[in-house]
Amino acid sequence: MKRILLATVATLFAAAAVAEYPDKPITIVVPFAAGGPTDKVARDLAEALRKPLGGQSIIIENVGGAGGTLGAAKVSKASNDGYTLLLHHIGMSTSPALYRKMAYDTLGDFEYLGMINEVPMTLIGKPTLPANTYPELVKWLEANKGKINLANAGLGAASHLCGLLLQSTLKIDMQTVPYKGTGPAMTDLLGGQVDLMCDQTTNTSTQIEAGKVKAYAVTSAKRLTTPALKNLPTLDEAGLKGFNVSIWHGMYAPKGTPKAVTDKINAALRVALKDAEFVKREEALGAVVVTDARLAGAEHKKFVEAEINKWGPVIKAAGQYAD
Question: What range does the domain containing 183 cover?
Answer without folding.
Answer: 120-238
